[in-house]
Specification:
The strands form four sheets. Strands 5, 6, 7, 14, 15, 16, 17, 18, 19 and 20 form a ten-stranded mixed β-sheet that branches. A six-stranded mixed β-sheet has the order 9-3-2-13-22-21, sandwiched between helices. Helix content is 33%, strand content 24%. The protein has one domain: FAD/NAD(P)-binding domain (3-Layer(bba) Sandwich). The chain has 15 helices and 22 strands. It has 499 residues and is of the alpha/beta class. Helix 2 crosses helix 15. Its EC number is 1.1.5.4. It is an enzyme of class 1 (oxidoreductase).
């Protein structure tokens, strides 16, 4: 038996943020800038902040800036590479860096090196087709100011300097090509989330752990009734608020469905889990000081593009290779085995079935991944690191990702969407974020979009405050080389990225 009580009306917050991850932390910081008089409360179902997708070992991204991720630069039938998405993502990441720099300037405690460090970003391909694509990709990107420092090589000797671990033992006759950017970074989004939530807590934001939001109900006065359950005592509390943001990672879809907003109808989710091979060997780490992306297997989702990353987490360096896809019906690592079946509703059944029919290649890929033996996974690693030995690597389980399934407005059929989707409903009084990559790296851009869509009547008044924190807000850096140079110099100095 659980008890339930309502808090006094005077204690009801202006804003409720569901989930204590990078998205809620970012929105809480932005609200401190534009509306510091608003009361903000965060409810997190776990026992710690950043325990799910924002956790550093949960595949939360390592500073996605489209410097090396090949799936952001698709090639057309004629071989020409379209840089549009890469430019967009890099612009978004530059916004994040400017905002983090502002927070450090403003007094967010801790050294920037706790959450961001410089790491070169490289792309690596093999074979004649891969080399032709890489050459065209470099030509397309290097013409953009954001990517003007991108280097290209087909030389084994040059690549042995860039990637000694990956080139050792490789066939000297193999056709290879690579690009390198020294502007890349490694980001620990778990540490960044903790720093931001600690910061806003000192400014009046209330962060409650072990508090699961069970339901969201719209009341007649326009406010939202939020029912929260203590996961330890079982006690239930209801609060009322003017605005709710559901930033609960994979848990966002079920909560938005419970809110019963029209905008969520037709949306579904397909959970994909992942695993990585990890090495803490100091010798291997010393020989791979980079983040390197390859090309995805046919039928593989973009989130499964193989990559070998140098990571710095809580003061310890390690290498991470993967991901190896798996399947679980859970929407969160700490979720329920019933998450997927319970998310199927009459309004999204058509979308779900449509994707099941059209994404046979993805289904085949996932089945193959789940059935892979350890030796087969090791052979995949050896495609990147020919001299890799099993004893140097252990398997770690990453976080859950819920790929967005939505209805195509032109065909009415269900489509699987790789990326993030901001859902805004009820005249801007509720919003939620669905999807995965590039996710955390573009959190600031996503939350700025939320402010614009949910508070259109206030955004003009807020704009000067936002531009003070983010100088390029509203001004694409790729179109303004002078502003780009100034922003890069400022953020590199403040975030201690000069060496």
């Amino acid at each position: 038996m659980t008890s339930q009580r309502s808090v006094p009306d005077s204690a009801n917050p202006d804003v409720v943020l569901v989930g204590a991850g990078i998205m809620s932390a970012t929105l809480a910081e932005l609200l401190q800038i534009v509306a510091p008089d608003w009361s903000v409360t965060v409810f997190e179902s776990g026992s710690a902040v950043a325990g799910e997708s924002s956790g550093p070992w949960n595949n939360a991204g390592t500073g996605h800036a489209a410097l090396c991720e090949l799936n952001y630069t698709p090639a057309g039938p004629d071989g020409r590479v379209d840089p549009t998405k890469a430019v967009t993502i890099n612009e978004q990441f530059q916004i994040s860096r400017q905002f983090w720099s502002h927070l450090v300037h403003r007094g967010m405690t801790g050294s920037p090196k706790e959450f961001i460090t410089p790491v070169p970003h490289l792309s690596f391909v093999t074979g004649e087709d891969g080399r032709a694509y890489m050459h065209n990709r470099h030509a397309a990107l290097a013409a953009q100011p954001l990517f003007e420092d991108l280097q290209y090589t087909e030389s084994h000797a040059r690549m042995a300097e860039w990637l000694p671990l990956m080139m050792a033992g490789r066939d000297a006759e193999q056709v290879v090509a690579a690009t390198r950017s020294d502007a890349g970074t490694d980001v620990n989004f778990g540490a960044l989330t903790r720093l931001m939530l600690d910061d806003v807590s000192t400014r009046g934001v209330n962060v409650h752990l072990n508090q699961r939001v069970d339901s969201l109900e719209k009341e007649t006065d326009g406010r939202w009734k939020v029912t929260v359950r203590d996961t330890v005592s079982g006690e239930r509390v209801t609060v009322r608020t003017r605005f709710v943001f559901v930033g609960a990672g994979g848990g966002a879809l079920p909560l938005l469905q419970k809110a019963d907003i029209p905008e969520i109808r037709g949306f579904g989710g397909f959970p994909v889990s992942g695993m990585f091979l990890r090495s803490r060997s100091p010798e291997l780490v010393a020989r791979h000081q980079a983040k390197v992306y390859g090309q995805a297997a046919v039928g593989a989702p973009p989130m499964s593009v193989p990559h070998l990353d140098l990571r710095l987490i809580d003061g310890e360096y390690a290498l991470l290779f993967g991901p190896y896809a798996g399947f679980s019906p859970k929407f969160l690592k700490a979720g329920s085995m019933f998450d997927l079946p319970k998310s199927v509703k009459t309004n999204n059944l058509g979308s779900m079935l449509g994707v099941a029919r059209t994404e046979l290649a993805l289904t085949k890929y996932l089945v193959g991944e789940v059935l892979q033996s350890r030796s087969a996974r090791h052979r995949t690693l050896q495609g990147f690191v020919p001299t890799a030995e099993q004893r140097d690597w252990d398997m770690v389980t990453a976080g859950q990702r819920v790929q967005v399934i939505k209805q195509d407005p032109t065909t009415g059929k269900g489509v699987l969407q790789f990326g993030t989707e901001l859902i805004v409903g009820e005249n801007g009084s509720i919003a939620g974020l669905l999807g995965a990559s590039p996710g955390a790296s573009t959190a600031v851009s996503a939350m700025l979009t939320l402010l614009e869509r949910c508070f259109p009547q206030r955004i003009d008044a807020w704009r000067p405050l936002l531009q003070e924190a983010i100088p390029s807000y509203g001004h694409p850096l790729n179109d303004d080389p002078a502003l780009l140079a100034q922003v890069r110099a400022d953020t590199m100095q403040t975030l201690e990225l000069n060496g």
